[in-house]
Design a protein that fits this description.
alpha/beta, Rossmann fold, six-stranded parallel β-sheet, two-stranded antiparallel ribbon, 8 strands, 24% strand, globular
Length: 146
């Protein structure tokens, strides 16, 4: 069975909520999902054994959280080229973090990215729950295509 790692960095809990919903979408599709706080990833070996990786961070003052920046530096050494990837994040006024994560995964890590990054102000607003679950389903769908 394929396995997806969904890693988030959050300050207020909203990005974690989005990560959990993406995980639900992955599981609904019959694929195993592991959801984890970025602070629990200690080395590039912690990223091994997954067929897809999805990274997300909230945006504060135009930046992703430092825990996600640290994760991206670790991930650069993990040999993720060709693996399925996705990026997401919660934001208030601006939403740069998901796009920066996505571009790093696509252009530096050379991952096979799904669509565009998922950007939500709040998982509970404007269909956010369904959008996050659909994003998870698209990750699982891309894995099944391979």
């Amino acid at each position: 069975m394929s396995k997806v790692l969904i890693v988030y960095a959050t300050r207020m809990g909203e990005t974690e909520r989005i990560a959990q919903l993406i995980g639900e979408g992955v599981r609904i599709s019959g694929v195993e999902a592991v959801v984890m706080d970025a602070g629990k990833i200690k080395n590039e070996g912690d990223l091994q054994g997954y067929d897809a990786l999805v990274f997300g961070s909230s945006t504060y003052h135009g930046e992703m959280l430092n825990k996600m920046k640290t994760l991206l530096f670790l991930a650069e050494k993990a040999g993720l080229e060709g693996k399925v990837g996705g990026a997401f994040g919660a934001f208030g006024w601006s939403g740069e973090a998901p796009g920066r994560i996505y571009n790093t995964m696509a252009n530096v890590f050379k991952m096979a990215m799904v669509g565009d990054p998922l950007m939500l102000k709040n998982a509970s607003l404007g269909g956010g729950i369904q959008m996050a679950q659909e994003y998870g389903k698209s990750i699982a769908g891309k894995l099944k295509e391979r």
